[in-house]
Amino acid sequence: MKTLIMFQNKAVPVYFTTENKQSVNKVLKLLTNALDHKIRNGKKALQKCLNSLISIEIVGSEAILHSKSENDSLALSLF
Asked: CA-CA distance, 14 to 40, in Å (whole number)?
């Protein structure tokens, strides 16, 4: 399943698997809260990834953040 979220004034696609136990709305709320917190308080490497974010993949309780540079992609725990 695919949906879009607005992050830093751009639409970012978020991909889900159907095996997620949590509701989509709850996961999206956790994701947006985590991203907002990390862009303000995160370390430089995380902020670099968030500034070049192209898509997010939700796998279980983690968000895999894909950036323009493959080396900057990171995993972020949601729970």
From this structure: 21
How many angstroms separate the CA atoms of 79 and 71, rounded? Answer: 24
DSSP string, 16-75: E-TT--S-HHHHHHHHHHHHHHHHHH--HHHHHHHHTEEEEEEETTEEEEEESSGGG-EE
Strand 2-7 relative to strand 10-16: parallel, antiparallel, unpaired? antiparallel
Segment 27-48, tens digit of pLDDT: 889 899 988 888 888 788 788 8
Give the whole-angstrom CA distance, residue 74 versus residue 7.
16
Q: Which amino acid is at 7?
A: F
